[in-house]
Amino acid sequence: MTMKKYYILFTFLVSALLLNTANAQYSSKKVKSKYQTYNDSLKTYKYDYIFPIWGQGAYKKGFDIPYPVGIMANYMWMKQSIIIDNFQIGLKTDDIDLDLTPVDFIQFGDNSNVSYTANIRPDIWVFPFLNVYGIFGVGQSTTDISVIKPVLINSTVTQDITTAGVGVMTAFGIGPVWVSVDGNWTWNKPTLLDKAVRVNVLGVRMGHTFTFKSRPDRNVAFWIGGMRAKMESETVGQIKLGEAIPIEELNAKGDEVVTLWDDLTPQEKLEPKNIVVHQIGKRMQAADGEAIIKYGMDKQVAEMWNMVVGAQFQLNKNWMLRSETGIVGDRKQFLLSLNYRFKI
Question: Mean pLDDT over residues 37-47, rounded?
Fold first, then answer.
């Protein structure tokens, strides 16, 4: 494709997005003719700010674009099932340091994660149809792990998490409804993991905005959509034995593990995976919980997609209150947000 064709294609896409931003949530909406006075004020409004680029042109066409800069405070709760594969385990004590070793005979049952986070999301509308933002937050995660073979062990691990990331969103209109597509990439660092885990989130939403008759700058929006979440699968970390398994259960579970060792053949006892599990069993029998368990795994959410519904109340062009919840799919979630927007 020649440079001229690239230029024509780019111009067409930009023009199409600008023309289709009518009624777009978070982007711009063309004010209806019944608000003629407000509509005329938009067309004559002198917009002398840098962002969004082409903001003056949007106002001249009667589009009521949001203030370009925003600070959003979010609280989110989420619960979802997780799948664990390729499990590896190691052990570190005062006199033993065993490297991570694959243990394919360990079978997991139902595993789940519950987490909550509070974060701040600064953003800016670069164009009337394109928003970029950052995410910075803290939270807590509780993971319930169920081992059903070779012995039955239930483990609950709670840890603090810090989050940082970036995202981009675009929005456009199709007749009376708007559509937004939102993608972000965050790096989440639990205290027990050696490195941060990247999570990619894609959200697609379709909705409609209802404007108050007496206040064209005040509205309520409702939407339905889907969210896809995928995490970086490889996880490596370490935890004290007493933090992974309740102290009062260590001795009894250790006896079960050592009994399994006694039933192995001499050749099987030479295999690294059996050696490391046997040593862990002996440390469990000690019941002090001080041994360090090293672990590695491939971890992924059970279902990447779920359905969401949400609503937003815009008090004025400065303040918005938003809520969203997951209704269909394995992932359950609840989001509450307060957004303040301003011009710079």
Answer: 68
